[in-house]
Amino acid sequence: MSDPNKLFDGIAQADNRMPVWYTWSFVATMIIGVCYLGYYHVATDFQQEEEYAATMAEYKEMFPEKEVVVDASKGNPLAGNPEAIAAGEQTFQQICAACHKADGTGLIGPNLTDKEWLHGNSDVALFNVIMEGVSMEQVKQNPPKGPMPPHKASLGAEKVWQVIAYLQNKNKNIKSAGQ
């Protein structure tokens, strides 16, 4: 098959067999794979969806969702609060800056420092957008920026109001619902 006298870049070609340990490793992997397939997909009634549903039910029992009620007539309860603005800036830098840039001028997310607002420029509208996110269907209606994940579970109402207080301090075009 091969000529043992051939040289490639000064290296002689050898006609050695594959190492035995390598062959047995391959055979063992095939046997384990067939056993796994038979056990999980044929012999048992293992359902990934059921396990996921049980895990999610346990999680929701441990961490129940808090219903957030927003009084649209009052607006941001933390507007103008220096501690809330500082905490909101810290949260913005940690969570929001990846999409909106550290200065808020926007990357994949929209610019938060100008007069143009895609989903409303009131604090209550911002609260709803941050809590519920922006779906692909909404993005198709208001291009060119991308979708946004909901932060209801990751931030909670207080941190969202802090971020909005920070944005209101940075951009005076955000209207308070109380005005």
How would you describe the overall organization of this protein?
The protein is mainly α and 179 residues long. The chain folds into two domains: 7-62, no CATH class; 82-170, Cytochrome Bc1 Complex, Chain D, domain 2 (Orthogonal Bundle), CATH 1.10.760. It contains six helices and two strands; from the N terminus they run ββαααααα. The chain has helices at 20-43, 48-62, 82-100, 123-132, 136-141, 156-170, and strands at 7-8, 11-12. Strands 1-2 form a two-stranded antiparallel sheet. The longest helix has 24 residues, at 20-43. It is elongated, with a radius of gyration of 29 Å.
Question: What secondary-structure arrangement, pairings included, does this model have?
Answer:
Elements: E1 7-8, E2 11-12, H1 20-43, H2 48-62, H3 82-100, H4 123-132, H5 136-141, H6 156-170
Antiparallel strand pairs: 1-2
Helix pairs in contact: 3-6, 4-6
Describe the sheet with the most strands.
2 strands, antiparallel
Class computed from helices, strands and strand pairing: mainly alpha
* Count of strand segments: 2
N/C terminus separation = 87 Å
- What CATH architecture label of the largest domain applies? Orthogonal Bundle
Mean pLDDT: 82
| CATH 4th-level superfamily of the largest domain | Cytochrome c-like domain
Low-confidence stretches: none
Indicate the proportion of strand residues: under 5%
Order of helices and strands: EEHHHHHH
Query: How would you write the strand order of the largest sheet?
Result: 1-2
> Helical element count?
6
CATH topology descriptor of the largest domain: Cytochrome Bc1 Complex, Chain D, domain 2
Q: Work out the radius of gyration.
A: 29 Å
3D shape:
elongated
CATH class categorisation of the largest domain: Mainly Alpha
> How much helix, percentage-wise, in residues?
40-55%
The number of domains: 2
